[in-house]
Amino acid sequence: MAAVHFSLPLPVLPQGWAGEKDFKSIGQLSSATQRNIEPVGPHFLAHARRKRHQRTFSEDDRIQAQESVKKVEDDDVGEISEPEDPLMLQRDAKDWKGQDHYAVLGLSKHRYKATETQIKRAHRKKVLRHHPDKKAAAGSSEDDSFFKCIQKATEILLDPVKRRQFDSVDEAADVEPPSKKQAQKGNFFKLWNPVFVAEGRFSKTQPVPRLGDDKSKKEEVEEFYNFWYNFDSWRSFEYQDEDVPDDNENRDQKRHVERKNNNARKKKKTEDTTRLRQLVDDCLAGDERIKRFKKEERAGKDKKRLEREAAEKKEKEDAQKAAEEKERLRKETEEASKAEKAEGKKAKEAAKNAMKKNKRVLKSSVKDANYLLPAGQEAGAKRVDQVLNDVEAVMAKIDAEEMASLAGKLGGMKVAEEVGQVWSEEVKRLVEAGKVKDGELKVMGT
């Protein structure tokens, strides 16, 4: 860059300044009226710009300010590009409670999600566009009413308490729930999910469970509805309070307005809770997942019921079979016992009959053998009694088996000597066995 030449005025020397020490002569100082200035720093660039465009200081400052505004607006166009509503520009600043603070700052699409940085940038952009001094410099005759709206909106939105109060009643952030007909025809989850996202901004508990989709598990769906049926909301309605008079002298009126505001807040809170409960009821009524879960639950209950009934039936059948088996065994045992008794009785009868028969054989044997007398000798009554008494005594000493054996030996014998021999041997056996004593028998023992 070429050097710029211009004249510098002579310096005004302070009184008592000893310039001779620095300059050899006054002539040297007066001769330094022309200097070569090299381009240095932003001040020289500003000077060069004014010289190039033939501007005065005030003209250059005004143009530079306009370019700065344009640059700020261009920088923010991606962040805040909402067109301004002509009716909004004509708002009365006194009606600040009725204005949409987000719309005033151009943050309608962000609303409660807008960050503090976005709010400050939006405020700067709006101020640069609507500042009264700028409008006056541009020859506009508009008042500063909308500028006051901008300031009030910024004041509200940068104050956490006031912003929360405004967000509580910001109907523009609400999402209308779909009608029953819309929910049936459209995508149930796509229609209802934005509604709960919008309502979820009031929850004290974060994050808020999502509605999910058709593939959500039963536990997730139950968690969602349990959360909303027990919704803990921070939403309040102070923003819509009637202004309390500042007149300290009229305290009764002030207390009346405060009580009126408190009652209005409680009423609105109750109405909002009822509204939210109805909204959840409507969503639940149209949720096909709930119907599917109930159907599966009924099927599971039916399955368990059928299994239980089958188990009870089987248990009953097993018990019946066991009872029948027990009865069968009892009958068999009883029949066997009866048969055994019958057989025993029959055996006893047979044994008894055999005993009688054997006794007859034994008695008949001595009778046929002439009461053990030689042939030709007649047995008297005494002989008969003695022999029969001996027979009775022997039969009393032996058991049925021995009696049968003895009867077998005597069967068919009629010779007195042979019969007597058999009886003698039997008596001898009994004597040796100690069952019969010597001399106990009258005839057979001799």
Task: Explain this structure.
The chain is mainly α and 446 residues long. The chain has 17 helices and two strands. Helix 3 (57-76) runs antiparallel to helix 6 (116-130) and helix 14 (288-368) packs across helix 16 (400-410). The termini are far apart. The model is unreliable at 1-32 (pLDDT under 50). It is found in: Cytoplasm. Residues 100-170 form the J domain. Residues 74-85 have a biased composition (Acidic residues).
- Estimate the helix proportion, in percent: 55-70%
Uncertain segments of ≥5 residues (pLDDT<50)? Answer: 1-32
Distance between the termini: 184 Å
What summary fits the major beta sheet? 2 strands, antiparallel
Provide tags for this entry.
446 residues, mainly alpha, 2 strands, rod-shaped, disordered N terminus, J domain-containing protein, DnaJ_domain
Write the SSE topology:
Blueprint lengths: L3 E4 L18 H6 L2 E4 L3 H13 L3 H20 L9 H4 L11 H4 L11 H15 L1 H6 L7 H14 L1 H9 L11 H6 L2 H12 L18 H12 L21 H36 L1 H81 L12 H17 L2 H11 L5 H17 L14
Antiparallel strand pairs: 1-2
Pfam families: DnaJ, RAC_head, ZUO1-like_ZHD, Zuotin_N
GO molecular function: Hsp70 protein binding; ribosome binding
Protein name: J domain-containing protein
